[in-house]
Specification:
The protein is α/β, with parallel strands linked by helices and 269 residues long. The chain is 36% helix and 24% strand. It contains ten helices and twelve strands. GO terms for molecular function: 4-hydroxy-tetrahydrodipicolinate reductase; NAD binding; NADP binding; oxidoreductase activity, acting on CH or CH2 groups, NAD or NADP as acceptor.
Length: 269
């Protein structure tokens, strides 16, 4: 086991963090060598296995990322933008693969992450699942084939606790549609319609977000023209698909040259 890549999980107490921990522990392909939480969290100093309601696994939760990364080959990070930017710099110092599933990143955050990618492998994606990344590629192809007479709408649904909208996956899909059409997404993005908005502008890419219950993730791209409609849809029912994709990215990143990558690179799409 000592020759397997060592993995650190950030935000280990969160729903995705717990799923990532369980996925690494059960994979047989990597070693869990660290779990991070914010200072003052109740899990600090406790064994992560016991925190999750099971037997001790010999890994204590810590608030010291430098110490954790010193013995790691990769960090799995589904946290918050400010934390992710800080982790990118630390991973660059440690030459550890940084797998980022954090959403809600602003342009300045992404610029800082890309600077860190000069020194480490960074894999960043709004969604780590194989199915969603295939949907992204299909969206680009369909948008490329259809002109602006076809309206494009991206509809996403998530659980009530999600704090950002549209989802990172919805933005991936919107970007894929814009790339297919050869346009700037920021110039054609139409989100948050409310009240008397006027008629839909030709060529716009619309976004709609639904929040409720425990929805894991649903994404649909609608291409609508007069008399016909095409819908591409992906439904996630288990967060484990994202955790497995993140671990796959961490393993793929071993031995790669420093740089900014995404799941398309990992999956060879």
């Amino acid at each position: 086991m000592d020759n397997l890549p060592g993995i650190v999980v950030a935000g280990a107490s969160g729903r995705m963090g717990q799923m990532l921990v369980r996925t690494v522990l059960s994979s047989g392909k990597a070693r869990l060598v660290g779990c991070l939480e914010r200072p003052g969290h109740g899990w600090i100093g406790r064994d992560i296995g016991e925190c999750l309601g099971g037997a001790a696994v010999g890994v204590l939760v810590t608030d010291d990322p430098l110490a954790a990364l010193a013995k790691a080959q990769a960090l799995l990070d589904f946290t918050a933008p400010a934390a992710t930017v800080a982790f990118s710099g630390l991973c660059a110092q440690a030459r550890a693969v940084h797998v980022i599933g954090t959403t809600g990143l602003e342009a300045g955050d992404i610029a800082a992450i890309n600077r860190a990618a000069h020194h480490a492998v960074i894999v960043r994606a709004g969604n780590m699942s194989l199915g969603v990344n295939l949907l992204v590629r299909l969206t680009q192809k369909v948008a490329q084939a259809l002109d602006a007479d076809w309206d494009i709408e991206v509809v996403e649904a998530h659980h009530r606790r999600k704090v950002d909208a549209p989802s990172g996956t919805a933005l991936m899909l919107g970007q894929a549609a814009a790339d297919g059409r050869g346009v700037d997404l920021d110039a054609v993005r139409d989100a948050g319609r409310d009240g008397i908005t006027g008629a839909r502008r030709r060529g716009d890419i619309g976004f709609a977000s639904i929040r409720g219950g425990d929805i894991v993730g649903e994404h649909e791209v609608i291409f609508a023209a007069d008399g016909e409609r095409i819908a591409l849809r992906h439904v996630a029912t288990d967060r484990a698909i994202f955790a497995r994709g993140a671990l796959k990215a961490a393993l793929w990143g071993q031995g790669q040259k420093p740089g900014a990558y995404d799941m398309m690179d990992v999956l060879g799409l």
